[in-house]
Specification:
By secondary structure, the protein is of the alpha+beta class. It has nine helices and twelve strands.
């Protein structure tokens, strides 16, 4: 509050003096402190980009003025340098997009430090030990993307283990909410613009250590690393005998000029990219594909069996006429003579 008074109204007042005034006016109430379990202290890493903590905070950032709840945040372990974006949901595509933008700004970090959410790790199966899970090497889309980028992934065993990013969430819930209110932000686009122009520069000035004082361990992208091909939803599919494959409930045809010997029953990589484009790659080469149309409806079956001849003409033939009016034969005739 004292910072905002100085920034917006050029009123210089000590923060404790202002706190006292707000308490007297009933505008501020001290929270009660709770005793928490003591966790071991972990020293900071020594380089900028050596370890980046990554987490999403779900909060009503606009206090009901708009549907903005999820802030994806990345904070450097050595310097506390922070950056992030508001996203529609804490889903894989939005996290991939945030990682893409971070890498374009800074390069590839050495390791990321995350929780054990299903975004980052495949849960253990029933009866499976942690060692067995690791040996199985099952990856989420984010996990695969990090591996292909050469970025290590470290999973925290508790929220306290990634306390730096957790504490930064609490600070943002206090400072950022008030600043968004003062700026009358009501949309996600405006909220992200405020983050980029106002909040992150201010945060990094007040709370982060000078980045220039630390060795930069971010690594640049190489020519072989295509972010569009890596930061996507990728799956392997088998090419059928008719040179088609299925993906997301739809069949796709490899065009005739793209077909080559030995393709049948081989695997290709299908990439659903963040812009919605679908790509298929076989042995390092992208193929031209097209959607297969819906199969034509089968014609109604026609019976080849000849029509059965109605010998009694529906009960109107001459031999049927009066059949039920004839008298019953005598019993002795039906049993035969001599009985």
């Amino acid at each position: 509050a004292a910072e905002q008074l100085a920034k917006l109204h050029q009123i210089e007042v000590g923060k404790e003096t202002l706190r006292g005034w707000m308490i007297e006016a009933g505008m501020w109430k001290a929270g009660s402190r709770k005793l928490h379990e003591v966790h071991g202290w972990r020293p900071r890493r020594s380089g900028f980009g050596e370890l980046v903590q990554w987490d999403t905070c779900d909060h009503d950032w606009l206090e009901g003025r708009g549907p903005v709840r999820n802030l994806v945040r990345l904070i450097d372990d050595a310097t506390s340098w922070s950056w992030g974006r508001f996203v529609e949901s804490d889903a894989t595509p939005f996290n991939l997009a945030v990682l893409w933008e971070y890498i374009e700004k800074n390069g590839r970090m050495v390791d990321v430090y995350t929780d054990r959410d299903s975004l980052f790790t495949v849960p253990r199966r029933k009866g499976e030990s942690e060692q067995e899970r690791q040996a199985a090497d099952r990856l989420t889309q984010l996990g695969r993307s990090l591996r292909e980028l050469g970025i290590g992934s470290i999973l925290a065993n508790s929220a306290q283990a990634k306390g730096r990013v957790e504490r930064s969430h609490l600070t943002a819930q206090d400072r950022l909410v008030k600043q968004l209110r003062l700026a009358k932000v009501c949309t996600m686009e405006a909220a992200n613009a405020f983050l980029e122009k106002e909040y992150w520069p201010e945060w990094n000035e007040y709370f982060a250590r000078p980045v220039k004082d630390f060795p930069n361990q971010h690594r640049p992208l190489t020519e072989t690393l295509d972010l569009a091909a890596i930061l996507c939803h990728a799956e392997d599919r088998v090419i059928g005998n008719d040179y088609t494959f299925s993906f997301a409930g739809q069949r796709y045809q490899i065009l005739r000029e793209q077909v080559q010997a030995g393709m049948r029953r081989q695997r290709l990589r299908v990439e659903l990219r963040l812009d919605g484009e679908l790509k298929a790659r076989y042995q390092g080469r992208y193929l031209t594909i097209e959607e297969c149309g819906a199969p034509a409806a089968a014609p109604p079956s026609v019976s080849r069996k000849p029509a059965r001849k109605d010998h009694n003409a529906g009960g109107k033939s001459s031999w049927m006429q009066g059949f039920f009016d004839r008298p019953a034969p005598a019993l002795w005739k039906s049993m035969g003579e001599g009985t």
